[in-house]
Design brief:
By secondary structure, this protein is α+β, with helices and mostly antiparallel strands. The protein folds into two domains: about 110 residues, Alpha-Beta Plaits (2-Layer Sandwich), CATH 3.30.70; about 270 residues, no CATH class. About 45% of the residues lie in helices and about 15% in strands. The strands form two sheets. A four-stranded antiparallel β-sheet has the order 1-3-2-8. It has a four-stranded antiparallel β-sheet with strand order 4-6-7-5. A hairpin with a 4-residue loop joins strand 6 and strand 7. Helix 5 packs across helix 6 and helix 7 runs antiparallel to helix 8. The protein is globular. About 30% of the residues are buried.
Length: about 375
């Protein structure tokens, strides 16, 4: 899975027209004439938004997490976006549809740290697993009288034991124990480092859900996009913090369970404007308030470690809850167009789907004694 971050200047006076085009697509993703979002089969999540700062004026930010290489993704994007010119004609330097790929590459920014809940999955495999679970649910609803006894019978099937399997299970348990051990040691080192330079005598006295911030937070549910200014003298420490995030995201936790939160689809950090500004992009389950609560309760070291290298960060960090949430909202943007490939699913649901498919395939294989390569291939798709 890969990430795309593109930032292009909006032509003077065209920001309202650009927002209207994106909002038009968002209002009717299935039937608008510009961007056939519902036909997308490569994007896990994408957001399009107009941002602003005094130095650069209005700019269009396109951020997406997608399957495959960039060229094939851009080709797919062109295929499902007959009105691509209506979007990017509002941007400076856009050469037209024929020069779209080169235009995107010229305005592309590398991602410095990236977490994705299921690195080994594509949009297609996730949708397939969801379809299996929903099919089972429908069958259970319709034929519960005989389906439940059948499942109970399958559950009583003897599990095939072998020396090789026992060795694999033992090695798996040892691997998990070793991983938990080194992650614990690493966090013991990282956590105090993230607090350097912060006032540490703030205690948590406010529930994040009770903070009154004067905004309609429901509009921010499901995603976060912040843009902050980097303290130049803190740049080396910022890169170290992002490297720690990247390392733990890749190797520290089971799929979908970063820091044992279980609500995060993805997050990433992107430096822009010659390292002057930092974009944070995340996708999550539930409300904005609950998301903040998860970070404050469980991943305070991750955000403090990065954000305290940016300007105007509260001196008490995330422990200074009221000030932190006011600050984060002042840096946050709401997309005009937001697309998710599986919007009705939670991370926990997707974890269960993976387990259901693995368990079902194993049980059917044991029950049927399938030996052919074709049968194995069919069951592995589950």
């Amino acid at each position: 899975m890969n990430a795309l971050t593109v930032l292009v200047k909006v032509r003077p006076g065209r920001e309202v027209e650009l927002k209207d085009v994106l909002l038009h697509v968002q209002a009717d993703p299935a039937r608008n004439e510009i961007f056939h979002v519902n036909e997308d089969c490569k994007t896990h999540c994408a957001r399009w938004m107009v941002i602003h700062d005094t130095e650069n004026g209005f700019r269009l930010l396109l951020a997406a997490e997608f399957d495959g290489d960039l060229d094939s993704y851009l080709t797919e994007l062109l295929r499902i976006t007959p009105g691509i010119d209506k979007i990017f004609s509002n941007c400076e330097g856009y050469p037209g549809r024929d020069g779209f790929n080169d235009f995107i590459r010229r305005n592309y920014y590398e991602t410095q740290a990236f977490y994705i809940a299921f690195r080994d999955e594509t949009v297609g495999t996730i949708r397939d697993k969801i379809a299996v679970r929903r099919t089972i649910e429908r069958l259970l609803d319709r034929y519960a009288g005989w389906a439940v006894p059948l499942l109970e019978a399958l559950g009583r099937l003897p599990v095939a034991h072998s020396f090789a399997k026992s060795v694999r299970q033992g090695m798996q348990k040892a691997r998990i124990a070793f991983r938990d051990w080194w992650v614990g040691i690493l966090l013991d080192i990282i956590k105090p480092i993230t607090q350097w330079g912060q006032i540490t005598n703030y205690s948590r006295v406010t529930d994040p859900a009770d903070v009154q911030v004067g905004r309609n937070l429901s509009r921010l549910d499901g995603q976060m996009t912040t843009i902050t200014e980097v303290k130049p003298w803190r740049y080396p420490r910022l890169r170290l913090a992002m490297a720690a995030n990247e390392f733990l995201a890749k190797y520290g936790y089971d799929p979908g369970q970063f820091a044992n939160v279980g609500t995060l689809y993805s997050f990433r950090w992107v430096l822009i404007d010659n390292r002057k500004r930092l974009i944070f992009l995340s996708v999550f389950d539930g409300s904005w308030q609950n998301y903040m609560g998860d970070f404050i309760d469980k991943i305070i070291w991750a955000l403090d470690g990065v954000y305290n290298n940016t300007k105007n960060y509260p001196p008490g960090g995330m422990k200074q809850i009221d000030a932190f949430q006011a600050w984060i909202l002042s840096c946050q943007y709401q997309p005009q167009l937001l697309f998710k490939s599986y919007p009705d699913e939670t991370v926990l649901n997707l974890i269960r789907d993976r387990k259901i498919n693995q368990s079902l395939a194993a049980q059917l294989y044991a029950a049927g004694g399938f030996d052919s390569e074709e049968a194995r291939s069919l069951l592995q798709t589950l």
